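Components:
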Amino acid sequence: MRVLGLYNYWVVVVLMMIGFYILIARGNLVKKLVGLSIFQTSVGILYISMGKILGGTAPILTEGRDVVYTNPIPHVLILTAIVVGVATTAVGLALVVRINEAYGTVEEDDIHRQDEAH
Amino acid sequence: MSAHLPALLVVVPLLSAPLAALVRRPRAAWAVALGAAWWSLYAAVRLLHRVLATGTISYAMGSWAAPWGIEYRIDAVNAFVILIVSSIAAVVVPYARASVEQELEHERIALFYAALILCLTGLLGISVTGDVFNVYVFLEISSLSAYALISMGQDRRALTSAYQYLIMGSVGATFIVIGIGLMYVMTGTLNMADLAERLSAVASTKTIPVAFAFLTVGFSLKLALFPLHLWLPNAYTYAPSAVSSFIASTATKVAVYMMLRFFFTVFGAVFAFDVMRLDWILMPLAILAIVSMSLVAIYQANVKRLLAYSSVAQIGYIILGISLASVAGVSAGILHLFNHALIKGSLFMAMGCVMYRVGSVKMEDMAGLGRSMPWTMAAFVVGGLSLIGVPLTVGFISKWYLVTAALARGLWPVAIVVLAGSLLAVVYVWKVVEVAYFRPPAPDVHIREAPLSLLVPTWALVLANLYFGINAKLTTGVATQAAQLLLGAGR
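Structure:
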């Protein structure tokens, strides 16, 4: 049961490895960025899962009642990390557009071949 | 105002960056960048002075008290790093004006300065903050702007090398966030000083060593520790000249600082070196970096690429000092951090001068430059001597400290590796000198000396190489104090 109970973390591990694998194994520059995005997103799930407390509600201050709150700080942190991830993807895609203009391809092998021939 | 100096150090460049982008005109954007860089140097000198006089400065960002709010914390270690980063920026921005006008299209120049100042902001932010998540945010600010800066090189390979750096850099940064997240889940705090107190209670869990491992890989990617250095040679080679000089002498140095801060201040030297045996990983990799990368540097035909491989080898020296985990070793590492910034800054700037007049930094195009560009090549020779570690230059001081530290630990083979690395440096520096001074220039090619606006900043760094090589009291004093602070009194 313990293994199943940690299923959020299994999702994180699987997603992270999928992303990392695409990043390493794919030669297409756009696909590499997709891999990077998946890889970064898995960290988001890791952070959010850490902050969750069973039975906890949104951290809104209410009069008189004793309530268990979910920790909001990981959410805030990962919001920042999402913004960073969006910026990284944007810069990466902008670079791919420029590479496509300069080389006429976004395949790593073709780019490498053109550079060698130079 | 002086109480808010730690915040203003970062905020002024941060606000200058959009301003530089908005003014559009190249000269105006340059002036904004110059103001921001010189301001940061002024603030850095004031802060170092204050830290040395009165001890650690703690600044609560937005007046939110420390463990909850973001704390800016400056001690001898980061005051020194801030001084390195800002003084290199203060020299590179005046240098950039002529160099960038020639290498970049007119309409991109303002954006170039905006990115340069953002990169400076990020590097200063990493150095000044006492909050681990803040470190990540500033790391990404500096990295994203660095990718953009590198992609502005003239050769189309600048684009692919910026892309490669982006992929590897983002993976490194994401590893760092994972490490930070795992530390947070065990301690519930992000403040470095607070983490340092709470980590020891949970250090025996599985989570903290995993966090430590993620952080180690992340930092190693960012500081280009062999064999995670693959992004570096291309990035330094194809970036615009001013960017090569700036990034080569600051970005990896700040990454080394991050590593020092996390391993010594947050985790503590006992956990990092006695429990996790970090030295078993760092020392072999550092030695491999010194030997193999110096050998690779010898076979390069492009001088900027040669210097880039030499940088990876020099990072090996810094890491070697740190891996000794003694006050002498860590202070040798910190000392080389400063000295290598001066050395590589001046060498890359000399290559920028060559690029300006010759339009290439390939070995074959540099024949006879010793006669046609005497000041530029003299700067390269002095920088090269410093790289080798000849007495009266800064390179000698750091190698001396490193060898002494290794011998104090009884590791004489390590001392031999350091000396062998210097011999290899003689070979690759000599190759450039030979081409420039002893090979006849190509006929009917007339090359003039670089303009003063390039030569003056270059020689400012070259003279700093000599000055701190003769009068090393300030640098060694601060480095020793920083090492003592990092290691605590116990070691």
